[in-house]
Amino acid sequence: MVTTYRPPDFQSALTIMRENRAIPLAGGTDLMVSRRRWSGLSPFFAKPVLFIGHLEEIKRVEPDITNIKIGSACSLTSLLEHREIPEVLKIVISQMATPAIRNIGTLGGNICNASPAGDALPVLYALDASVVLQRKAEIRTLPIEKFITGPGETVLKDDELLTSIIIPKKSYNVGFYRKVGTRQANSLSKLSFQGLARIEEGKISDIRISFGAVALTVIRSREIEELLIEKSGKEIEKLISEVNRLYSAVIKPIDDQRSNIRYRKTISLKLLRYFLRTVLISKIG
Amino acid sequence: MKINFILNGKNVWVETDPLRRLLDVLREDFGLTGVKEGCGEGECGACTVLIYGKIAFSCIIPVGAADHAEIRTIEGYRKTERYKALQDAFAEAGGVQCGFCTPGFVLAAESLLREDARPDEAAIREAISGNLCRCTGYNMIVEGIKIASLKGKGLW
Amino acid sequence: MKGKIGKSIKKIDVAEKTGGYARYIADMRFEGMLHAKTLRSSKPRAKIKGIDIPEIPQSYYIVDRNDVPGKNRVKMIVNDQPFFAEDVVNYIGEPILLVVGPDKEKIIKILSEIKVYYEAVKPVFTIEEAEKLNTRPIYGEDNCFADYEIEKGDPDEAFGRAAKIVENEYRTGYQEHIYLEPQGMIGIYESNRVTVYGSMQCPYFVKNALIQGLGWGGDRIRVVQTTTGGAFGGKEEYPSLIAGHVAFASVKAGKPVRLIFDRKEDIQATTKRHPSIIRLKTALDDHKKIIATDVNIKMDGGAYSGLSNVVLQRAMFAATGVYNIPNVRVRGRAFATNNVPSGALRGFGGPQAFFAIEMNMHALADHMSEDPLDFKIKHMLKKGDHTVTGGVLRQDVKLAEMTDMVLGMSDYRKKYDEFSKTDDRVLRGIGLSLFYHGCAFTGSGEKDIIKAEVKLKKREDGKVLILIANVEMGQGDQTTLGKIVARTLCIPVDDVIYENPDTDVVPDSGPTVASRTVMIVGFLLDKAAQELKAEWEKAPEVEVHKVYEQPGYIRWDQETFEGDAYPVYSWGTNVVEVEVDPVTCEIKVKGIWGVYDVGTAIDERIIQGQIEGGISQGLGYATIEVMNSKDGKILQDSITDYIIPCSMDFPGIESKLIDSYYEYGPYGAKCAGELPFIGAAPALASAVQKALNVQIKRIPVTPEYLMETAEGEN
Fold first, then answer.
1. C230-265 pLDDT tens trace
2. Which domain holds residue C500?
3. Least crowded by CB within 10 Å, which of A4, C315, C505, C518?
4. Rounded-to-integer distance, Cα B74 and Cα B99, Å
5. Contact status, residue B15 vs residue B64, Cβ threshold 8 Å
């Protein structure tokens, strides 16, 4: 039986992490499945486990003027029910898993699991989210794209906890999210597309585009987005082909039990073009 | 580790590996076999329990994470008026075939109706989207939940 | 008793199931019970050169081929499947041995220390490879479990004078049952007898398998069905294998042994629907009428023969669907491959055949610029017509009426025309399917093989016991059979008791398969009840025993497959409306309608439950239930990856029953359990075909397949 800790408070949790390099478990909805063994047996952990899902310090939602700080152990359902959580994030969360999973699962867990198909990731990348990582006597903040380095890989140190997610407060007047899953609900993502933009006076002042489940990590390219800034509807129309080509070069999906390379790539680009042409341009007017 | 929680209205505790699945603790330590194992992956809902009145899948919850929680299984629900309304409604609608998924759906319905006493069809389908049924095709279960919400005046 | 029998009553088992009182096999505990886990082959085809077994602690046991006291073959049509592998393994997941003991941690530790030495043998993975056979056959000489041919009329002559010949090929994939309750058995050896409790459809199949495996007399073997959480054919033959396992284990250990599958194990190791490749060659005359069809059916039977022979037969008998084709040749083969054995699943060969014939009719119509519906109607069977086996449709065939009804309900014609106007933003389609299900066992199977027996016993307290081997598995048997007996005896339904069958107590009324329970066993119970009614006062306790008698009109030759393949047919029509997303090619079902002829509905709500559940499974089969096998390994081997419909996938269903009466069914009832499954997939595929203007040649119709097909046609 592996050692488990249920710390009374956040500081104790950090101490335990420093002394034991434990595996943090918040909701457990990923870990309890990925490590499951025969029915009736506890899941397999090679290292000690630290329960953190009950720690109030990491379950708060703290908005201020410029950002919103989301505790990593907030349940997904609590985020759906919270006034301050941006609508674009709620749209994504509401399509994650199922009600029962959302009641227990956390954003922190989804991020640390770092699946290429992680549902919350594309919107967090698009929102320029950063993650706050804490160990005893040290806090650091990293942009999410620096935190996740590959499938299932993050730079989380073995004595660190991901304590909150910071999302800059920005307003967008164009949002488009499409998750293509294996069924209408309760499904893993074959691919997903997130588009966000702000249109001012007939031109794009801000645009974010990200793709999920079609590469080792989420695809977001500020260079390609730059090409669309300050462009009018007509100019964007002319750029669609080029933008399509540029994203095509970095979209590198795989064949797996859910879908195949061609479908994932083709549909990702179709969704991109749909976003640019139908959503964006029509909004510009 | 000693883990305390409220189970079906009673204070209980277990001294056990906190990583044991709540499902196994309920079935083996407390004999609550109304909580079923259909998949062990959190995908089918046969293991549904209510935690603080909200739907949760016990096969993916380590019992240690349920410390001090308020947990209810079908055994702790089936003597209530609300249960009676749901059972009658499910019977009227034809929503029970092999029965393996049924307690899970009853608790899913309770989780919904306590938040939204008169849900529309879309809300019902969404609320039960994590519970799988292979026998009924769902429509008769949806109908059952509708009937319960309409007939269960004042219950929710 | 007054009023229609079909008027629904509260299902007898609702309270116990809804409240979580019902005890399924995993809920049962016995004193001293041990757990068992199966060691399975990790190779698709190999010789077992040796097995290293670590030192086994006291109270733990290895149970393998050496612990089979009788014949190490699971009793089936052909005895090719061993309980435990001997010198060879033929599929990934094949059971090699059990590790049995009191503590699960120790069991998996022992399992992890067992080493099996394999010598790979060149495997066969696809129907094409099985046919070509570049390696040793897995079965027989030609690697075919079954190879049949039937002929009606003179197809060669008709093809000779054809104005047009069109050929099409269709493919259907695997399907997994995903009964919510995984497989499970408990075996108990006590007082020189073995008792096996478990989730099953056929207690006597299991008992007979144990008689053969243990080599004991039937008096020493008892089989008790436990409340079964769904089956759909997946608990028809498979339980015989694992019943043997727990029986041998309990004899060896001298203690009860419990074997409950985890879901993933269940998906990986148990039987699946036969994948098929069906090629239809059709000859048409100058008037665009079909004069001949040549059908070539190939099925993937997996590693052992199981029920492949019968699945294949049913597919062959359904090969020309509901159409009157004067000249037909059907050749069918079920091939052996090193994949998981295929087996029974709702429809049992029918779904594969009906997908092919319905899509073929649609394709032929498209080819000749005819309206698919009119083309189908032109060829529809009528009462008095001959079936593909030369049998006669003696009872009413209400297809025309049913088609009119479903067209009206769905507004098919109007929508069909409307959807024909192209609109790139929304791709809409509507499709219709016509189908049947042959009720109960083929030909003279009931008379020659099953010989069903039922007993009805009046107790001193006035309650009546139904003593049959058929099981309640969600389909409502407990209630429908109870209603039949109660009505005939004029007693309240609550006075009729029908418990989970125990072979010590009940006679062999045959398996709960082939949609036969109400029609065949219910009819026998009705007759028994009539007799019991007459004898009611004779004594405080009265027992009536009845044995199946084949209706006189049935003519069947099992050697040549000629005559009445089934005593009667149930019929169906489906319309499905879809919208296809032009960007993602995802299919959204917008409407589902069905009209069915199942004879008398013994309970309308229960029939509705079968319709809705069957359609849901059929639509899943057509769209999201993707299961591929690569190099003998199933790629979608968990419930996360093998996707069945959830509550948000399909909309409500509008269904109606048409009045009909079968004189050899209880109160006129025919069969209903499998029929509703069959029409859903072809109706959906037709609708998608219409929406996209592409030929749909395979199911599941995935967005990936649609994208390729749409691109291909461009």
1. 999 999 999 999 999 999 999 999 999 999 999 999
2. 445-547
3. C505
4. 13
5. no
What pLDDT is attached to residue C424?
66
Q: Is C112 touching A (CB cutoff 8 A)?
A: no
**Do C58 and C198 lie in a common domain?**
yes
Q: Is the ipTM above a cut-off of 0.95?
A: yes
Environment class of C249 (CB within 10 Å of its CB; exposed 0-12, middle 13-18, buried 19+): buried
**Amino acid letter for position C181:** E
What is the rounded average pLDDT of the residues C336-358?
A: 98
Q: Which CATH architecture has domain B81-151?
A: Orthogonal Bundle (1.10)
Element (H, E) at C411: none
What's the CATH number for B2-75? Answer: 3.10.20.30
In sequence order, what are the beta bridge partners of C38? C98
Q: Give the closest of C17, C230, C648 to B134, CB-based.
A: C230
Tell me the CATH architecture of domain A4-168.
2-Layer Sandwich (3.30)
Domain count along chain C: 3
Torsion angle defined by CA atoms of residues A183, A187, A193 and A199, in that order, rounded to the nearest 10 degrees: 90
Per-residue pLDDT band for C177 (boundaries 50, 70, 90) equals: very high
Rounded to whole angstroms, the Cα distance separating C65 from C49 reads 15
Say if residue A38 is exposed, middle or buried (CB neighbours under 10 Å; 0-12, 13-18, 19+).
middle
Please indicate whether, in this complex, the C-beta atoms of B96 and C605 are within 8 angstroms of each other: no
pLDDT tens, residue by residue, C575-601: 999 999 999 999 999 999 999 999 999
Q: Would you list the domain boundaries of chain B?
A: 2-75, 81-151
* C487 lies in some domain: yes
Same-domain status, C187 and C59: yes
In this structure, how many other beta carbons lie within 10 angstroms of the beta carbon of residue B27? 23
Instruction: Report the run of H or E that residue C287 belongs to, with start and end.
Output: none
| Alpha helix positions (H), B9-101 | 22-24, 81-93
Using DSSP, state whether A262 is helix, strand or coil. Answer: helix
Q: Residue C236's CB: how many other CB atoms inside 10 A?
A: 25
pTM of the model: 0.97
- Range A78-116 burial, b when 16+ CB lie within 10 A, else e: bbbeeeebbebbbbbbebbbbbbbbbbbbbbbbbbbbbb
Partner-chain contact C584 A266, CB within 8 Å: no
Q: In what order do the strands lie in the sheet with A23-25?
A: A4-5, A49-51, A23-25
